[in-house]
Amino acid sequence: MKRTVASIIGLALLTAVHAQVTLEQCHKLARENYPLIKQYALIEQSSEYTLSNLTHSWLPQVNLSAQATYQNETPSFPDKMKAMLSTSGLEMKGLARDQYRVQLDVSQKIFDGGKASSEKALSQAQDLEQKAQTDVDLYALNKRVNDLYFGILLMDDRIEQTSMTLEMLGGNLDKLQSHVRNGVATSADESQLRAEIMAVEQNKTTMQWTRKSYQHMLEILINKSLEGETLVKPHDIEPATLTSNRPELRLIDAKISTIEAREKAIKASVLPVISAFGQAFYGYPGYNTFENMLNHKWSLNAMVGVRATWSLSSLYDRKNNLNRLTTQHQQAELQRDVFLLNNSLETSRENDEIARLREIVKSDATIVDLRRDVRLAEESKLRNGVIDIHRLVERITDENTAAQSQIIHNIELLKTIYDLKNTVNQ
Questions:
Q1: Is the pLDDT of residue 275 over 70?
Q2: Do 278 and 302 contact (CB within 8 A), yes or no?
Q3: Per-residue pLDDT tens for 337-370?
Q4: How far apart are CA 107 and CA 348, in angstroms?
Q5: What b/e readout covers 90-121, taking b as 16+ CB neighbours within 10 angstroms?
Q6: How far separated are the first and last CA of the chain, in Å rounded?
Q7: Per-residue pLDDT tens for 179-208?
């Protein structure tokens, strides 16, 4: 029997734990569900293709070509020389006007001045910048989740307080009906109290629909049903440090890294490229021109060597391009300064708001206790047959308003603390 009871209790506790959802879990689920999360995989794939292409640039470059041409003039011997050669039995036809060639060119890069490595570094820097931008875009989800999460907590507490007020009004209605039956109170008093109950019920219905709307939006954001789930109220612990750790700062760092990689690529672009090459073709005419003048036969020809190329035109814009990147570097640093200033202002505002709310929360409990004492005094009068429904309703409304304000201030304090955590990413 004891084991059965223990099992039931354990299962109940397990269910209770399972039915709880935390703010951090909602942040994680929202991030995983958001379509932009797929951007990371796309960036990785694009990076792999780019780096693979850069690696291929060091492989031998092979070109196969074929051509057929017809010329109106070709090299030939003068007529007198032809006559002299013909007396020796040599008929010098000259090169034919129709010429053909099937050619294979092979080139192997030996030195590229650091172009491939600088392009690889640039590609990696651009990938990191794109990921940093995605981090910034996804980080914005936290604020949206916070707004909905604390909105639901606020509605839950307000609905609970409203239910307590309705119980209070219902208890007083029972007492009042007893007095009406005994002729101490009038039916008008009962109608007034019933109208107040209906008004409070309307407010509760509005709150319930507002909560349902918040929950539905949060469910869409995190792709998880919250039906039957309890949102855990976070602790009101302020961040340990106000030093900003926002992803926007890492994005600015990534932009600067990209700019520096571009600078290296520009400097590498003005260096010469040295490569070994080989060329072979089958056709007519070949390299032996005199032989081709005697007979018009196709032949196999080959050549190997070393080639150096230097694009001097890249020097034209080098200085302007480097100056432009220097300006972009300064702009990125300026963006960092502006962001840190705005972030500091927002941190200061939220910090002051937390201090203000803590002061207000301290007095809220006292105000609620005082309003409760006044309301209890009015209820005591009702029990003793002193009927002033209008005054009793006012006292109940005052207590409910004070309690609702206390709830709002408590949730506002929690939300502001987590807004501050979001502002500094701590």
A1: yes
A2: yes
A3: 999 999 999 999 999 999 999 999 999 999 999 9
A4: 64
A5: eebeebbeebebeeeeeeebeebbebbebbbb
A6: 49
A7: 888 887 788 888 888 999 999 999 999 999
Can you give the three-state secondary structure of the chain, one letter per residue?
A: CHHHHHHHHHHHHHHHHHCEECHHHHHHHHHHHCHHHHHHHHHHHHHHHHHHHHHHCCCCEEEEEEEEEECCCCCCCCHHHHHHHHHCCCCCCCCCCEEEEEEEEEEEEEECCCHHHHHHHHHHHHHHHHHHHHHHHHHHHHHHHHHHHHHHHHHHHHHHHHHHHHHHHHHHHHHHHHHHHCCCCCHHHHHHHHHHHHHHHHHHHHHHHHHHHHHHHHHHHHCCCCCCCEECCCCCCCCCCCCCCCHHHHHHHHHHHHHHHHHHHHHHHCCCEEEEEEEEEEEECCCCHHHHHHCCCCEEEEEEEEEEECCHHHHCCHHHHHHHHHHHHHHHHHHHHHHHHHHHHHHHHHHHHHHHHHHHHHHHHHHHHHHHHHHHHHHHHHHCCCCCHHHHHHHHHHHHHHHHHHHHHHHHHHHHHHHHHHHHCC
- The predicted structure's pLDDT at residue 404: 93
Question: CB neighbours (10 Å) of residue 322?
Answer: 14
- Residue 420, pLDDT > 90, answer yes
The pair of structure tokens assigned to 292 is 């081709």
Question: If you classify domain 21-57+117-272+314-424 with CATH, what class do you get?
Answer: mainly alpha
Tokens 């029972």 sit on residue: 174
Total-model pTM: 0.79
CA distances to 76, 87, 92, 294, 364 from 80, in Å: 12, 11, 11, 16, 123
Domains in the chain: boundaries: 21-57+117-272+314-424, 63-111+274-309
Span 119-145, pLDDT tens digits: 888 888 888 888 888 889 889 889 999
> Torsion angle of alpha carbons 295, 296, 299, 302, nearest 10°?
90
CA distance linking residue 357 with residue 412, whole number of Å: 8
